[in-house]
Design a protein that fits this description.
Helix content of chain A: 25-40%
Largest sheet of chain A: 8 strands, mixed
Number of helices of chain B: 10
Order of helices and strands of chain B: EHEEHEEHEEHEEHHEHEEEEHHHE
Largest interface: A-B, 129 and 120 residues
Number of domains of chain B: 1
Oligomer: heterodimer
Strand order of the largest sheet of chain B: 11-12-1-10-15
Strand order of the largest sheet of chain A: 5-4-21-20-19-6-7-18
Number of domains of chain A: 4
CATH architecture of chain B: 2-Layer Sandwich
Distance between the termini of chain A: 58 Å
Distance between the termini of chain B: 26 Å
CATH class of chain B: Alpha Beta
CATH class of the largest domain in chain A: Alpha Beta
Number of strands of chain A: 34
CATH architecture of the largest domain in chain A: 3-Layer(aba) Sandwich
Number of helices of chain A: 31
Strand content of chain B: 15-25%
Chain lengths: ~950, ~325
Amino acid sequence: MAIERRTFLKMLAGSAASAASFKAFGLSNINLQIVDDPFNYPYRGWEDFYREQWTWDTVARSTHSQNCTGSCSWNVYVKDGIILREEQAADYPDIDPSYPNVNPRGCQKGACYAAEYVNGDRRIKYPLIRTGARGEGLWRRASWDEALTLIADKVLDTIQTQGPDALTFFTPIPAMSPVSFSSGARLAHLLGGIVCSFYDWYCDLPPGSPITLGEQTDVAESTDWMNARYMILWGSNPLQTRIPDAHFITEAKYRGCKVLAIYPDYTSSAIRADQWFSVNPGTDAALALAICQQLIANGTIDEGYLAEQTDLPLLMRTDTGKYLRESDVAAGGADDRFYFWCSTHNTLELAPGTEGSSIRSIDISGHSPALTGSHEVTLADGSSVTVQPVFEQLKAHLDANYTPAQAGPITGVAADVIAQVAREVGDTAMATGGRVMIMHGAGTNHWFHNDLNNRAMLLMLSLCGAIGKNGGGFNHYVGQEKIWPVKGLVKLSFPEGGKKQRFQNTTMWTFVHARMTDQDLGAEGYSQSTRGYLYDSVQNGWMPLYPEGCLGNDKNNFVSTGATVKDPKVMFIWRANWFNQSKGNNYVEQNLYPKLDLIVDVNFHMDTTALYADVVLPAASHYEKYDINTTDMHSFIHPFTPAIPPMFESKSDWQTFQALAAKIQERAVQRGFTSFYDAKWGGNRDLSTLSDQFTDNGALAADIDACQFMLDNAPETVGMTMAQIDAQPRRMNEQTTWTSNVEPGRPYTAFLKMTEGKEPYETLTGRQQYLIEHDWFVEGGEALPTYKGPVDEDAYPLRYNTPHGRWSIHSTWRNAKQMLRLNRGGPICYMHPSDLAARGLQDNDWVRIYNDHGDVVVRVKAWESEKAGRVTMYHGWERYVGVKGKKANFNSVTGIRIKPTQLAGGYGQLHFKLNYWGPTGVQRDTRVQVEKYNG
Amino acid sequence: MAFTGRQLAMVINLDKCLGCHTCTVACKNLWTNRKGREYMYWNNVESKPGPGYPRNWEGMGGGFDSYGNVQYGTLPTRDDYGRDPDYDYQGGLFEGGGIVDANPQPTWLSNWDEDVGEGTFPNNYYMYIPRLCNHCTNPACLAACPRNAIYKREEDGIVLVDQDRCRGYRYCVRACPYKKVMYNAFTKQSEKCIFCYPRIEKGEPNACAKQCPGRIRQVGFLDDTSADVYKLVVQHQVAMPLHPEYGTGPNVYYIPPFSGASQVDEQGRPLNVDRIPMAFLRSLFGDDVDGVIATLRAERDTVSSGGSSEILELLNSNNRYSL
């Protein structure tokens, strides 16, 4: 489109005249030169003006530690000792040139960390000691020595008067900065304090994964999405929450993948799908089970896979609904050995690889475990019982309850659409060897019955042989569970081993100590109250609860009053905004916080938890320290390195807790309290050498030494140096890790050790297990995958949805000015225009969201994409930003509900393990009302 | 007299855009976080249909008429750009109160209508469109400048406002139909996207392009037959300028969204009706968009049935820059 000559002549004539006239009027203060040709401009010396703005002195590699799964490597630019800006390093190696690579990883939030937090006006510069009420924002500056002395004395007081298990340490997600995680964890370990869980508390844990697969979570790295041929975005909103990975969705489409999006709302990821339909909130399990029913009806199931990889061929007694055990059949037989019926030999065979089997493989070559049929088996006592493969019972269960016609009215999705999806899923899986993937997220995982959602979707993928396949699988992308060099982390955090460490499921701890027991929500449909189940679980030794003995010895008293007899006293919080993010926020403030004599927050900025703390210690920013960083979204490792030394009086977390260890030692010696007996430790703890224990006699004193220690002590990273991973991100070592090996040229996906290596799953049956016979599951009618609707205990008209969004990573960046300005400048909720109209509301009005738990005032945005009957408030808003004078946030209208079955223990894979098995902190079942706020 | 130099171009794939604004923030922290540029987004991302940034820019005029006469549109008001709020964290969090409110309370901001679009649930629709200066072949800003302070670089076609020569008369702001020249009240000069020429000169792609995690931007010279932009714009002709009717010859080209879901009935049955109406896409890209979308959909069909597509592989490219 060249410019017409005529146009330019006209234009130049005009401008020459203008220039002359400006000169004449004296408006120009320079001797204006004539420009003959704007395409050959003569006066370009000024261009250095912008060139000078793109200069720097030094560059350092770092990343961000925000409980984000990005794990994005950034270059940080420094000029005159000041951090100017950051930019993605974009130098991850290719896994294989045939795949689009992961560059450049990093989002808009990472791109303003320097401006907002390193140099921002919420930076904590010095140790602060609270002078006003908690949350009032009144402080005095203290010296490090004064602050540490105050803390050390309170720690020693608490150990002496209450015991070390009244010291609570909370920090989440080691993967994002494991040395920083280890700092306080190691001190807790040496003192006897409790280390709290996070993955279950944040409801990132999909309980169906440990229930079914015996694994916390394991997923494909995002590059493997390229191998999918059918991808279902289900409750996960990757365009907002997996920004560095989301390109693979469209790139997979360009390689032949169909993408289906299932969300109630027409959310931003739906716009990238080939098909979207709206499902009624909380009904996803019904939809998945109807697809399962259709897969079986259509015959698009992988029978060989089911026979080998799942418990579906294992025989079940029709009289008890439990597995047929060796102990049923033979005197002295084991109760963790199970049978299948071999249709080749027509024989009853013990399944290899079960928990009690001496064979550590699920390889069943030579046999054909039957999925159908019915047999009479003579028991050890001479009686006879009818047994059937689990598959028979499951099929009958699905056919009776979950046809598309039955699921249609529940889900709001037409039966023929369900059938269409089932047909496409089955056909694609059969044609491609299981390259069907569910990208699963918090939208489906944050429900009370999240485990049922998980189990239904897992079953759907198992039926068509899609778990443990590249391009397939249940890819649960919520939370940052994968700390690849986990063995190094454990060794650094808990040098004496996990058995000597008090671990605490945070959901239970908060539920009990914040007196959510007063509400006792969410036990409907079970034989006793949540309090009853909780008491039994603790009493049975299934779940720990600290301080030890806090529930008392009288179940009746606890069940009737919810009262505890011992309280936590001191809480350390670092790398987290624990208070802000706590479900049951008002209960925490009103009931739990008063129990705490001292709340210490270690932070680089004044978030809500810092604002409500008693002592705030200044932390180095992410650009001022060494650490390492990994994620489940890719298989590379790269470091934090300091672009500049810690600003003001801040310290790295490793140095802060080291200094606290030294101060506790110093005060212990001064006070003559240098050791105490601790049964958990198995002897006396020595406080007089605490500092040396912390640093391993100086070997781990420097941050970089702690980083290297971790690399050295994990098979995934052994042999790597900090200098090497600083030079360029490196892929994990090629050897046995997690549930699959890292292999050259092959994107990581989960459970290949089982599907290709025939290793047993970590379940009772050694298989993907769809029958759970634990009595509490049977009581709840959940022995087989089933659907239960949302728990509608709050008697309010609107569903309340608090998803993860684009503009924050949890609460971080919620106070970032650049992010606020690119949105609506403060907290908002989204409602369908019809719900606004029904309440006389206009877009951008102030509204009050309320229920019996509390209220919060925010602005409302009219959003056509929202499902009517629901209000969405993206999570993470701080209690103090833009709340119209009343400190509150998205969690002010939530309580804490515990699902009884998630307190179960004493059964195969159902045993407490930090972040693997324990109650999840659900909140999607909350209901609210919204009204205009005129205050 | 016409531009005869080399021309850098950018292709932006709207079918892949995440609406994440990393481009916007990358640009902001590199160029517009200081000295009177604070309110500017040289690069912004807007949800369409919608008023965009500055508000209702498409209704403000500018460009050239059919005779080639430059048109002086209306000057956006300060409010049209949105008045960014500030937050007194130092006072509220460190000096008492424990509450921090936006000041001023916003009623309009650059991305106010994020994800809004048009239509009725469940068939409402929206799309993202990142916008920057188009470094036009026939720049209306250049034509409008009475001081000849705007020029187009022969070596790369980048259009710049000479910051020594400009006196801030804002004819360029009025004439640019994309409203991508902005007035700096601190320096009293007009400024705009410089296509990151300091980076380009060093072989480094623009910040908005290189930092795009959606991998939707490709940059190169239009006469470089090995460049992705050449292949997409010239060879396959699947990348289109925004509002070609403005007559300025933009050098930022867009792949239109082509792979989204269809409309559905109340129970989710697909209706085989485009969710984003073609009429709307024609209003952005002109009538040729029908053919482009047909081509791109045919390419997807080819791939889905086991074939290969050079065009779609270009859109998956790991080597998106030829500088």
